[in-house]
Amino acid sequence: MSLINKAFRGAYDSVRNAAFPLSAQPGTGSGKAFSACFLLLLAPLAWGQDARQQLDAAAQRQVASELKNEARAQGWKGMTFTVDNNLPNSLGKLPACPREPQLRVSEAPSSATARRRFEADCPGQSGWPVYFTSQSTVMLPAVFASSAIERGQTLDANQLKLAPLDIGKTPRGYFTDIAEVAGKTARRRIRADQPLSPALLDGATLVRRGQQVKIVASQDGIQASAVGEAMANGKQDDVIRVKNLRSQKIIDAKVVESGVVSSIF
C-alpha cells in the first residue's frame, strides 16, 4: 500500500471512530450506522476506500439527504436516524471505483423508513453494477403516557411526556406534540410508557354535562342565541340534549366549539 493510500486509510479510520451528537449504535448486517454529521465528512475520503467502503458511504449520504428532506416536509423536530446497508460479500474482491459510484433506487420506498433497493454502477469497470439494500431507522420525540390512563378519562398534559419512538414500528400513527393530545379522551385503558396513537383517543370533550352553554340558532337569515344547560358530554359535531334555561324546553343541539352548541330544527 502506498504512503498516500495509508494516509487516507488512517484519516478514514480516525473519523469513523469519532463520537458525534447524532450518532447511534452500529446497525446489524454488513452495513454500518453513521450519524448525520459524519456523513458530511465522508466524501473527501472516498479515494482511500475500497468498493465496500465507497458504496457504504455513498448510500449513507443519499439516504441521509432523503431523510432530512422528509423531516423538513413533515415538520419533524429532533429527528435522529441510523442507516444500515446490507452489502454483498462479493465486494471484498471488487476493486474500488476510480470515481464516485452512481446509485439508483431500483424500487421506490413506500415511506421514509421503508427498505431501499439500490443499484450501484461504475461505468466502464468490470464487476459492476452491484445490487444491495439499505434500511433506515428513524427516531422522533413522540407523545407517551407518563402514567396509566383509564378508559374514558380526559388526558391532561401532566400525564404525558415526549420520548424517542421508532416511527417505522408504529403503523397506527403517533403524535409529536403534547398540546395536540391534551384534552382528548382515552378510548381504552392506556399503560404507563405506552406511545399514543389516534386509535387510542377520541376528540377533546368541548361540552360537559351540567355546564352552561351558549345555544345559537339560525333560520331564514335570522340568528338568535340563548343560555342553556348541557344534559350530556359532547365532542366536536356530537348531537346532545340541551335544556333552554329560559323556556325550560329540552332540544337537540350540535356541539360546534367549546361551550357552544347549535340548535337543530
From TrEMBL:
<protein>
    <recommendedName>
        <fullName>Flagella basal body P-ring formation protein FlgA</fullName>
    </recommendedName>
</protein>
<keyword id="KW-0282">Flagellum</keyword>
<keyword id="KW-0966">Cell projection</keyword>
<feature type="domain" description="SAF">
    <location>
        <begin position="140"/>
        <end position="202"/>
    </location>
</feature>
<comment type="function">
    <text>Involved in the assembly process of the P-ring formation. It may associate with FlgF on the rod constituting a structure essential for the P-ring assembly or may act as a modulator protein for the P-ring assembly.</text>
</comment>
<dbReference type="InterPro" id="IPR013974">
    <property type="entry name" value="SAF"/>
</dbReference>
<comment type="similarity">
    <text>Belongs to the FlgA family.</text>
</comment>
<keyword id="KW-0969">Cilium</keyword>
<dbReference type="InterPro" id="IPR039246">
    <property type="entry name" value="Flagellar_FlgA"/>
</dbReference>
<keyword id="KW-0574">Periplasm</keyword>
<dbReference type="InterPro" id="IPR017585">
    <property type="entry name" value="SAF_FlgA"/>
</dbReference>
<dbReference type="Pfam" id="PF13144">
    <property type="entry name" value="ChapFlgA"/>
</dbReference>
<keyword id="KW-0732">Signal</keyword>
